[in-house]
Please model this.
Amino acid sequence: MPRNEVSCEIRDLHDDKSFQTLASALDGVESADALRFNNKRITGEIIRSGADRGLSIAKWKCTSTEDICIKKLPADSGEEKKFLLLYFLNPAIIFAKKKKKLRISGSRNNILLSNSAGLEFILQARQPFYLFEISFTPSWLMEQLRDADPVILNRLSQYIARAMQTFLMEPFTQEEYKILHELEVCILIDQAEDFFVRSRLYNLVITFFSKVVNRKEVPVIQTAVQYDQLIEAEMLIMENIRKPLSIETIARKVNMSVSSLIRKFRMIHGKSIHEYYVSKKMELARKIILEHGLPVKKMAEIFGYNQPSAFIESFTKQYGYTPGYLKLASKKFSFF
Model:
């Protein structure tokens, strides 16, 4: 057992009791499905969200001034079986079976365990801690994978039927990182449709089990991607969607060089910062048109276009139809 000044025991982060236990132990402020910390011991937040029946998600983003040990206790007997799919986005220390110490590097940080298994992980002093957690029941999993490859279904059935504790570790791929980044932003800005979130979570779960079955060599993240700074950069873009900041300003605010920001942003999103900004601006424009039906000229003014034609061109390039067509179609097919 690790020697730490602070420790906290929980069984299921998605259970209200465990959430309240964390809040009490670490002096957190609970608000709906979020815990926020701003004290001498720890700063940051833990946010959870129910994505579907039998499926939930949580993300940790914290920095502590001293080592903190979080102990996930085995589920009580008779409690519904669940699986936890954990993504450690920074190097970390965990204690697994028989208190075996594992150091999670940047290339092996994806863990699956059943809730009947115990696990301890350490929030190391002055080291940013990022953990993405997906919790799902066997019934949800089998319902989603009814048409999956028989080999995968057979393997899943074996895991579900096991009486023993399940603990698996697999490499963490670049594609999975991109999906997690999308989900992170969805949680932060709270504007994604449920179907989008469920589809991304499904993708992550099936990808993990495919790796277990196939055991193929896959490209992994070998170096730090400065996750927190890229998230901050994206939030700055979203907060200034009508009047964009320069790349130099964004880089300065997130403490990155311009070249590093440009390179790593494209690596995560597959597009430049400008292309990303325009796509998000058009998403917001589409939402406003559907909800308020503003004239195209007014929309162009709102989003800083000197001419409506320039706004129409950007919108049409992204969606394949004009904003005028969208406005007309939304009226034609409205039930209200």
In short: Residues 194-214 form the longest helix (21 residues). The domain at 6-214 is CATH 2.60.120.810 (Jelly Rolls). The chain has two domains: 6-214, 227-332.
